Amino acid sequence: EMKDNTVIVVFGASGDLAKKKILPALFGLFRQGYLPTDVQIVGYARTKMEKAEFHSRAVSYIKNPDKDAAISAYDDGSAFKALNDHLLSIEAKYTSKERNRMFYFALPPNVFVPVAKNIKEHCYAETGVNRIIVEKPLGRDLGSARELINSLMQYWSEEETYRIDHYLGKEMVKNILVLRFANVAMGTMWDKNSISNVQITFKEPFGTEGRGGYFDSFGIIRDVLQNHLLQVLSVLTMERPVSFSAEDIRDEKYPPITQEDTLLGQYVGADGKPGYLEDDTVPQGSVCPTFAATTLWIHNPRWEGVPFILKAGKALNEGKVEVRIQFKDVTQGIFKDITRNELIIRIQPSEAIYMKMNTKTPGLQTSAMATEMDLTYNRRFADAKIPEAYEALILDALQGDHSNFVRNDELDVAWKIFTPILHWIDGSRPKPLSYAYGSRGPAELNAFVERYGYHRSPSA
Ligand code: BG6
Fold first, then answer.
1. What count of Cα atoms within 13 Å lies in the side-chain half-sphere of residue 403?
2. How far is CA 360 from CA 234, 355, 373, 458, in A?
3. Could you tell me if the ipTM is greater than 0.90?
4. Could you give the CA distance from residue 190 to residue 177 in angstroms, rounded to a whole number?
5. φ and ψ at 139, to 5 degrees?
6. How far does residue 316's CA lie from ligand 1's centre (Å)?
């Protein structure tokens, strides 16, 4: 449940993540009445910033921290003592002794450990609940991730730690468990007997523009596949949890998974749009992939033999994230020109679930045609407000619900799957295939998905 007497400290308050996602999410929750009315939000940043500037970047109710706290470094204990004094002065007006503090790390990963240590040592509220929220990148491979997780856990317990993967906060990703476990019809066709192949696709219509420095040292596999798409895969394929509790859900999330056959791409300039290598923030001659497709196999009785194709790319022809489940062919014989059933879960934009179905062509002739059963949200739920992922997750964290956060063992499994291919890429530096900015990705992609059994429907 939600605690009164809560202070939220956003570290990295002047940065991009805070500005684009965290502060707007906090404001959205506040405006919709989800935060306690006396909640206090403190921005903490290394960049010196005047109050007016911070306010114009953020929103007027967010309090600026003391100036001296704002300018000091993240590894300076005295700055955290000053922050604690500031928090105590805010909390002085509470009528009860309870003081709850939530610390959001909107920070580069190299300061995670010093900040975790400093807030534990100097800003830990003795009477109340303390929580930290951290977010990727959490390591570069299995070894470094374990090291980081262990260092953080020296100071903060699993119970106090909320590891964000914001895809787990998206409405349609949260809907997958309901779709699967609240519908007997879905449940019975959700396995290798009915399903031929599954694609999980992430497409963005823009390149790394200005973010090339961060991106180039990670690449699309670490940026999107290893976390966001793998999380979608896990809720899509997990066994039914014993209950909807956080631990029961997370216990089921990862069966043994292996990875094979990766196609890498990098965009080149087209139609006046700059190629990846023309981005000033990208090192010359970089072979960093901005596109990747890879196939995962899940080794359990439900999924053995079903390929899961994960694809993600920047600078493509559209922005879209979807799951596409392609079912097997019906036994041929009585109908011609029918297509495979496909269930599409469109995560964004325009949330939708639809099923490609064959139906009798209306009229006197007897033939079959492809159509859809369509649940498009903005038609079916015209007035519903779909929450932002960060709103949903911050609210969960404030309520102490870990269901949609990444447990340390999940992170381990996720890195285990991708570490071999990442080490191979880092070591051999294969040259990625080129694709034009604004295209559908490398030309070789069609053959890739067909190799894993995907049939393009004749109508599409
Ligand atoms: C982030 C990645 O985690 O997710 C970005 O670092 C990506 O590269 C973003 O653009 C996509 O998030 P969303 O919510 O816009 O799909």
1. 17
2. 36, 16, 14, 17
3. yes
4. 12
5. 95, 170
6. 14
pLDDT digits (tens, 9 = 90+) for 270-310: 999 999 999 999 999 999 999 999 999 999 999 999 999 99
What is the Å distance from ligand 1's center to 223 Cα? 8
SS3 for 5-58 is CEEEEEECCCCHHHHHHHHHHHHHHHHCCCCCCCCEEEEECCCCCCHHHHHHHC
- Closest residue (by CA) to atom 2 of ligand 1? 223
Atom of ligand 1 nearest to the CA of 166: 14
Stronger pLDDT, 411 or 45, i.e. the higher one: 411
- Cα 457 to Cα 321, 333, 338, 450: the distances in Å are 20, 18, 9, 12
Match 């000091």 to its residue by tokens: 72
Ligand 1, residues 163, 167, 204, 231: which to mutate, most atoms within 8 A of Cβ?
A: 204
How far, in Å, is the centroid of ligand 1 from the Cα of 426? 22
127/98 Cα distance (integer angstroms): 5
Nearest alpha carbon to residue 250 among 259, 241, 258: 241
31/25 Cα distance (integer angstroms): 10
Residues 64, 52: Cα–Cα separation, whole Å: 9
Question: Which atom of ligand 1 approaches the CA of 215 most closely?
Answer: 8
Cα-to-centroid distance, 230 and ligand 1 (Å): 14
Lowest mean pLDDT among 6-15, 69-78, 158-167: 69-78
pLDDT of amino acid 277? 96
Nearest to 393 by CA among 131, 179, 156: 131
Q: How far apart are CA 238 and CA 167, in angstroms?
A: 16
Indicate the length of the chain as a whole number: 460
Mutation test residue for ligand 1: of 20, 167, 224, the one with most atoms within 8 Å of CB: 224
Q: Crossing angle, helix 142-155 and helix 112-122, to 10 degrees?
A: 10
The one-letter code for the residue type at 327 is F
Q: How confident is the model at residue 144 (pLDDT cuts 50, 70, 90)?
A: very high
**228 an active-site residue?**
yes
Closest ligand 1 atom number to CA of residue 204: 10
Helix (H) or strand (E) holding 342: strand 342-348
Catalytic annotation, pick one of 86, 166, 228, 402: 228
178: its two tokens: 């309901």
Q: Which atom of ligand 1 is nearest to the CA of 227?
A: 3
